[in-house]
Amino acid sequence: MATPVTSAGVGDTPAAGETPQPAGTAGVPGPRRGGGLYRAIRGNGKAMTGTIILGIFVLMAIIPQWVFPGDPNAEVYARAQGPSGSHLLGTTAYGQDILAQVFWGARPVLIIAVVAGAVATVLSVLIGVTAAYVGGVVDDVLNLFTDVFLVIPTLPLVIVIAAYANSHSLFVLVIVLVVTGWSYGARQLRSQALSLRNRDFLQAAKVRGERRSYIIVFELLPTMTSLIVANFLSAALYSVLTAAGLEFLGLGDTQSVDWGTMLYWAQNNEALQTGQYLWATIPGLCVAALGTAFALLNNAFDEISNPALRPVRRIRVKRAHS
Amino acid sequence: MSSAPILEVTDLVVEYAAPQGQVGAVDHVSFDLAPGEFLGVVGESGCGKSTLLFAIAQLLSPPAAITGGAVHFKGRNLVGLTDKMLAASRWQDLSVVMQSAMNAFNPVKTIGAQFKDAIKAHQKWSKDKIRERSAEVLRLVGIDPIHVKSYPHQLSGGMRQRAMIAMALLFTPELIIMDEPTSALDVVAQRSLMVQIKELQAELGFAVIFVTHDMSLVSHFSDRLAVMYAGQIAEIGATRAVFDSPAHPYSKGLLDAFPSIRGPRVHMTGIPGNPPALLNPPPGCRFAPRCPVVLPRCHDTPPELYPVRDVLVRCLLHENVKGGAHV
Amino acid sequence: MTYLLRRLGFFVLTLWAALTINFLIPRLMPGSPATAIMARFHGHISAATLKAIEVSLGVDTGQSWLGQYFTYLGNTFTLNFGVSVQSFQPVSQIVGAAIPWTLILVGVTTFIAFIIGTSIGAIAAWKRGSKADSILPPLFVVGTGLPYFWVGMMLIILFAEVNNWLPVALGVDPGIDVGFNAQFLGNAFEHAILPAAAILITSVGTWVLTMRNTMVTTLAEDYIRMARAKGLPSRRIMIDYAARNSILPNLTGFAMSLGFVVSGSVLVEDVFNYPGVGFQLIQAVQNEDFPLMQCLFLLITVAVLLAVLLADVATALLDPRTRNAR
User: Is residue A111 classed exposed, middle or buried when 0-12, 13-18 and 19+ CB atoms within 10 A define those classes?
Assistant: First the structure.
């Protein structure tokens, strides 16, 4: 599962429930314009790698109907074939083309990642930033709420919910992912919003008489863009890995075509033990690759939003000894 | 008092690697320090005074580094030595007092533990001796020795600052460099701290380099005063000389900006403009763009330090045949 | 003291929340668990068993929800979790047998991962800008993107299918008696190596990155420079001044991440058929064994909560700033 990466602000009171500590940044505004963003990615090796991998998968998600027309679930080919000219990755025990399934499977996976990630991030922003900006009792209550969700172990909760839910559709999956995935980001965002709260530009807006909601949306949030993006990526990563895990256990829609369900069917047919290695591992490799892409991008955005984490330049110094 | 200077800074250059290129933070600074002397270094934010201080103590970290010049402390050039090589003389001969004691003390260790750290890094004293000395230095600065067991956050701001000075005195070093130790205090605490430092100096005989932006405060206590601007020394000399009759237009502007509490009410003038960006400093005098008495040649001729009465001043108005000199 | 009380209060509150969630979920889902069970057994279920199931779920159809709630709470605190639908064994027995396996596997592995990860993170931050720091962190970032179960599968292929070195299923070979004897322990250890490796590989990355990031921030602090100025040896600065201050704010966060590690280990246990709590949970889910499922979920949650509480206590002990309410 995705384990969240944190960097605690030194001097924060260490405790959940109080000033939250896994905080991403010292509150430095990220790049505000598209040009700055592009440059930031170009300059960061991790970001470039992540973007490229992601790009490949996005491409895979867009083109399957042209490259592999037809129903990837149709059991029309010879069963359990190894790789060959007509089936580059071989076929499953049911006679389906593995590569075709991989291509078709990219779309639902990406949709889950993006949708669940986005909705969870929106929730995180709403709760985290509101708690930080409004403060007082509201802050305490929201904090408690966040921490409770944070501590309850996600996969067991997800498993239990998914088990009880009668319909195993994509929709339920997304809901479950959102419900379990928003709390971590809320903590991080609250922490950063807290450190930005007393900055002059916000005070200036207050003195100008702007409404609180205006200040939050138009003054505060734009400076937190990098961290929000980093959070989205982290939530997407979490969604990808958790969704794959759930489907692997058979709790997703087993009739759908995506990587997790491929693994489920492979496991069901003892693919590992019967030597059908490709079927058993390629879908997992795709999940791993996509996960890696998100993880790299997430880390890169952490660096972008917190200059202290960026690589330090060194000057070439002549060592002068007397 | 021997007459050989304990510190000779020669043409020190400090640069740091910024995204846009290398920026010069300290540009060919030279001065000497006699044993037991109190040198004040003043200037506005960003003039390089703190960088200079840390460069002298070899405490810079990337992206900043010393790229030229030498720092001879007791005859030994410190530039280029590794932390290991420097360790022996650190604290025993040269110690540091920083701006914010709250940040300079490790928050999770007691004051006493941090004293002990410093001691054990250099000497193999017995537990009793360590305890004794720790209590002694605390008493020297007027803190009850019971606070050896206190954590930094348990002391008041003024006490913390004095505790830091106490720590700096553990080995009665010959030079203590202080980076704006009074900036975080209120005016009453500021003065009392300064008086304390002077008393200790009289008693123990160490030299002090005191960096601050508060010229009027330090001028009451320093023997010599150096005014820094844009990484260079603009003026340096006996305190009274610099303070009473500043030769450099910048120093003059600084002093004119301090209202006198007793004198007649005068119209205050600030110094218009901003210090130059050090990525591409002006080719001539760095103060030229803001100088009220600028000459045309100031824009392209970089001035050296010229002797004028008791001071050295970096201004073409005082240019003479002898050229730049060491004081 | 107030700090600890607050944390204790949080613990109790979250525990209550977990219990309530456990209670509410089956009721909020469409259909009732009792009918689902009935359907599963096609009506062939003894009245006693059905009653036992209902008791464990707190679904006494004669009571109101509130009444059921209190019965449920009562049952939980007396450790009466009813009977497993799969085997008709008491749930507490099944769970009791599974706990030691998971405790050892996850407990020991997480501990090792924490130590290794934190050390690597600290060293990487200390040697910032060096080759090690440019290569290691990105490598570990990649590690955090790998699914637990896939790593497990790859290990199986590598170590068992391709080379028949290590066992890949169960806790011990069948036929060996359980007991504190060398044969059992040795065999169990063998069986634990691969699952442990899977958990280790995937989870260590997070510790490394968290520690490195915090440490980098810490190293910029003035007291580090002051320690250098005092001439303290590098090692001492790195450990006593930097690492110590970096771990402290992270302790509670580390404990919370335990929840994620536990989640991952559930999948690992499944892949390896390792007879721990996670494995039982999966079995329970796939067989709609609600009593067992509920108990396990509760157990896992309580375990994580306890870990968080322990971390809070440790923080209170190690960080003097929390002791005085300032």
Answer: middle
The strand pairing partners of B41, in sequence order, are B211, B226
Average pLDDT on B213-229 reads 88
Please report where in the chains the tokens 């087993």 appear, as a residue.
Answer: A254
- The answer to whether the bond into B281 is cis (omega within 30° of 0) is no
- Show Cβ contacts of residue B58 under 8 Å, excluding neighbours closer than 6 positions: B66, B71, B78, B79, B81, B83, B86
| CA C9 vs CA A144, A148, C4, C120, C249: distances in Å | 11, 12, 8, 35, 20
Query: Please, which residues 3-62 of chain A have a Cβ atom closer than 8 Å to chain B?
Result: 11
d(CA B101, CA A246): 53
C-alpha torsion sign, points C147, C148, C154, C158: positive
DSSP type of residue A5:
P
C chain contacts of residue A284, beta-carbon cutoff 8 Å? 147, 149-150, 153-154
Quote the DSSP letter at residue B275: P
Higher-pLDDT residue of A148 and C33 is A148
Does residue B316 come out as left (phi exceeding 0), alpha (psi in the -120 to 50 range) or beta? alpha
Name the residue in chain C with its Cα closest to that of A268. Answer: C271
Q: Using the predicted structure, report yes or no on whether residue B238 has a pLDDT greater than 80.
A: yes
Chain C partners within 8 Å of A147 (Cβ): 10, 14
By DSSP bridging, strand B207-212 and strand B175-179 are: parallel
Query: What ipTM goes with this model?
Result: 0.82
At residue C303, the pLDDT reads 83
Answer whether residue C93 shows pLDDT above 60. Answer: yes
How far apart are the CA of B73 and the nearest CA of chain A, in angstroms? 11
Kindly give the pairing relationship between strand B175-179 and strand B311-313: unpaired
Contacts with C93 (C-beta within 8 Å, 6 or more apart), sequence order: none
Structural tokens at position B267: 């119209």
Count of positions (residues) in chain A: 322
| Cβ contact C304–A45 (<8 Å) | no
pLDDT of residue B134: 93
CB of A91 within 8 A of CB of A104? Answer: no
Please give the angle made by the CA atoms of B202, B207 and B212, to the nearest 5 degrees.
105
Please report all neighbours of C, defined by 3+ CB atom pairs within 8 A: A, B
Question: A253-267, B5-19, C8-22, C245-259: which range is least confident on average?
Answer: C245-259
For residue A201, give every residue at least 6 positions away whose Cβ sits within 8 Å of its Cβ, in sequence order, or none.
Answer: A219
Question: What is the distance between the alpha carbons of residues A269 and A310, in angstroms, rounded to a whole number?
Answer: 47
Residues A315, B107: C-beta atoms closer than 8 Å? no
DSSP B299: G
